[in-house]
Every structure is written in structure tokens, then in C-alpha cells.
Amino acid sequence: MTRPQIQQAEIPAELFGHLLVYSGDPADGTAMRRHIEDDGYVLLRNVLDRDEVLAAREEVFLRLEEVGEVVSPAIDGIASGESHRRELIRDLNTFWESVNGGPALRRVTHGSRVRRVMNEFFGELSRPHDLVYLRPAVVGRSTRLHYDFPFFARRSFRIHTTWIPFGDVPIGDGPLMIVEGSNRFSDLIDPIRNHDYEKSHSDEVIQRSAYEIPNSTDPITFARMRKTRLLSADFQCGDLIVFGGFTLHGSLDNCSSVGRVRLSCDVRYQPATDPFDDERYFGIRPVGSNGGGYGDMKGARPLTEPW
Ligand SMILES: O=C(O)CCC(=O)C(=O)O
Question: Which of 264, 265, 268 most suits a substitution to test ligand 1, by most atoms within 8 Å of the C-beta?
Fold first, then answer.
């Protein structure tokens, strides 16, 4: 087996590990919260309806097939290496918004399976953000390390991320990666926790606090300096991972030898009783942290173009 890779470098064996799988009951909110407290994440296997997840995968890839970016059968998610998105679509923002609003996708991201887990997790009714982050990642792509808290802090401080693989996402296809023990890196967490986001929440400030320090070196050097490991898993269709805003994460590189596009979606959940008037994340047309809505997202660009 080839070694997991991040930002074009193989991760040395001693710096890589597997995410722990939660073996408890998904209805046991106390146990799940304990896992988040201890490890920063809880990985649940087989809690989503596989048929629903696959229907969403097909829905998204059919839209990408329409613009020539994946080949038939769309559900396999194999990139064509071409794109006609710019010729065929007048408004890329509206296109991406409609893909993110697809009924099959929303049936999973906002459906009863995820909601049930998050209700138990919070110990009260939960509410998903309307804005979701669908991520089709072609070979060679990865997401840089960051904490989520700076993006979502302001009205609710209990927001958690749910990350859903749409189909199997083996390690070689560049799934989510979590830095082990990063929920206890107080030197990195305290400044972002103590920042006054009501006063200063420009996208520039958020991007800087989420990304700057963790990316001041490459992830392998970072892991070595912190005496920790980069954790990931062979994700399976039906899995769900939940993590907090103070868990440092990114992704491995997509190294698929068959050109498979890695498809996932991250969706934020918060307790339903917390305020939900942040126009960045709620409403018919949420504007996102940079103000441009779905048009600001990496997925809004043709798959053939650099992120
Ligand atoms: O899927 C990825 O590449 C990164 C996901 C992420 O950053 C998130 O869920 O907050």
C-alpha cells in the first residue's frame, strides 16, 4: 500500500494514525460528548442510510457530468479532466447554489439520520446551518489545516461540524484528516477562543486566525514539532464524523489512481435554542463568511481550475 500523502509529501509511518471508531450507542449523547471532550471528534460508522447517501452522490455527480467534468456513469465520480462549465453555465454562483440545494443532498445533510445523532449529541433539539460546504476534490487536492471556530463563532458558541463522505472515501482518495490531540493545543486555541468576533469578524480576520499559524510550516513538520500524529480513516458510505471548533483538521491529498473525485459535505449543527440569525449561515440565500455565498466556495469553480 502506498503511504498516505499530504501536500505532496508521504506521511512517515510514525506520524500517521487511524481515527478511533466510536463503538458506543449513537443514542448515548453523554458518551459522544465525552469522546469529543477527550479526542476532539467522534467517528460513527454506518449511521446514515447508504441508499440516501448514494442517491445524493449520484445527484451531485450528474450535475458535474452535465458540464463535462465527470464521465458516465456519473455515480463513479471519475473526473474527465475537462470542463464546459464556463461555456454552459451563465452564473457559476447560481449553479453551485443549486447543486448544494439538491433535494437528495439535503435529504442526507438535513435529514432525520444526522439530526437524530446531533439531537442526542447536544442533549436537546439541534439545528443545521442552511449553508453547507460540498467538496468535490480532484486528484492532487487537499484542504489546509485549520480550526473551524473562527468561522462560526458569533451567535452560537456550541456549533459543531458534521463531515459526511458521499460514498466510500479510502485514505488514498484524500479524506478528512484530524491532528491528534489538537483540541488541547491551548497556545493555538486560546487566542481564537478569546477573540471578540462580534467586534471583528471580517473574512480576512477569520481566515488569518483559522489558518495562519497551523500553516506556517508544512503539516508533517507541524506534526513532528508538536510530537503528534495526523489521523484519518478509510471512510465508508454511511459514516458520519462530528468534531468541535477547536479540533485542527484538513484533508489528505487525493491520490486516486483512477481519477476518482472525492466527494464530501460539511454541515454545521448547533442546539436549536441558540440564536440562528447569522445571515452568513442561515436564510434562503446565506452569504457565507466572505459575503459571496456559494460563489465564494472552491466547488463553484470548474474542477479543472486550481483552488
Ligand atoms: O473536506 C475537507 O477537505 C475539509 C473539511 C473541513 O474543513 C471541514 O469540515 O471543516
Answer: 264
pLDDT digits (tens, 9 = 90+) for 52-80: 999 999 999 999 999 999 999 999 999 99
What confidence tens digit (pLDDT) does each residue in 163-209 have? 999 999 999 999 999 999 999 999 999 988 888 877 777 778 777 77
**Number of the ligand 1 atom closest to the C-alpha atom of 135:** 1
Nearest-atom number in ligand 1 for the CA of 251 is 3
User: What number does the ligand 1 atom closest to the CA of 250 have?
Assistant: 4
User: How much distance in Å is there from the Cα of 159 to the middle of ligand 1?
Assistant: 15
State the CB neighbour count (10 A cutoff) for residue 9.
13
Find where cell 477569520 sits: 206
Rounded Cα distance, 54 and 210, in Å: 32
Angle between helices 92-100 and 50-66 (to 10 degrees): 160
**Amino acid 287: pLDDT:** 95
Taken in order 35, 169, 250, 104, the sign of the CA dihedral is negative
Residue minimizing CA distance to atom 7 of ligand 1: 250
Q: Say which amino acid occupies 179.
A: V
Backbone angles phi, psi at 249, to 5 degrees: -150, 170
Q: With respect to residue 150, please indicate whether it lies within any of the assigned structural domains.
A: no
- What lies within 8 Å, CB to CB, of 275 at 6+ separation is 155, 156
**205: Cα separation from own chain's centroid:** 21
Task: Tell me, yes or no, whether 121 lies in a domain.
Answer: yes
Residues spanned by the domain of 169:
27-144+160-177+235-243+253-299
Q: Is 48 within the bounds of a domain?
A: yes
Identify whether 165 is part of a domain: yes
Q: Domains in the chain: how many in total?
A: 1
CATH number, domain with residue 277: 2.60.120.620
Peptide bond into 4 cis (omega under 30): no
